[in-house]
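Write out the 3D structure for:
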Amino acid sequence: MEKLSENEYFENRKIAKGGFQGKIKLRKPCRRHTETRTGKTWKHYLRDSRALIGLSGSFMLLTALVYGLYGLPWGPAFYVLLLDIVILLTVLAAGYGSYCRKLQALRDTANHPEYTLDGLPEPEDMAEAMYKIILEKIHGRLRVKAEAYDRSIWEARQYYTRWSHQVKTPIAGISLLLQEEELDRRELNRELYKIRQYVDMALQYQRLGGKADDLVLKEHELGTIVRKALKKTAVLFRHKDVALELGNLDCRLITDEKQLAFVIEQLVGNAAKYTKKGSVFLGLTTCQGKRELLIRDTGIGIRKEDLPRIFDWGYTGYNGRGDCHSTGIGLSLCRQTLELLGHEIRIESEPGKGTDVYIDLTQMKLEYD
């Protein structure tokens, strides 16, 4: 599958929304259709001008009433009524042109494939100005939502393109192992773990799209959650000269067990992956009155210039570029998951010495719509 850049993807989306961009010969509307449309426009215009017509009619009726009550000669009254009718028709005729231009501008805006509010006619009174302000605000919100939706579609496409290529590697590894005369179960378990990890990441990516719909918040023991996550990552430590150390995990917290276990598993997996020799430590610590879960490794560390961007979607950094299997998605999913749970995450690292990951367990600020 050919990968598209972000600009190319959104340009294609724009073309698709706009439809065919070539020249299309339009059939000239027939005279009968034009007359029917003009007649409907006149009816709508007269209905919208009923206040002016009613005011003018009231003035003519009042004039006739005054002349009749006072017994005045009807000759001057006739000229007054005729002048009133002429003024009314002149005003209506002049207003009809402006009405038609405004109506046509609205039709053009509505029929444009990618209509914008720039094509709307200028408001003529305070009410129309307020309507335009309201439309601009609604249009702005819809545009932001549409851009966010397009970006999410683009990110999903890029992610699953990477995922489909990466999951082929452990599958190919298993295929080769099965062709051996003596099956190496340790290597087989290692490749199966990679596949399961890729599948878990894809499922978590889908869960985050539903936000809080999938959350099951209960009180849990932190030690129980950590041990469940470590049980899944145990295969990584069997193949490396890396020790796993557990500190104090005596803590109860309200959280979603499955979501938090996913985060811990990802972070421990990264620690084991980038630690060739040494240890990985998990335990509680306190910083400025905050209770935090510390995951510390003695691995290769992270460069200082990469630290501000390590949680960005798709960012692999120097270490990830050296590893062809890095997606740049894991840490981004961890941060989004922890934000959903009301936790915070921060990372401190020094190249060649290791990395410390802190998960704040004290700030539980959960908001639901």
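DSSP finds eleven helices and seven strands in the chain.
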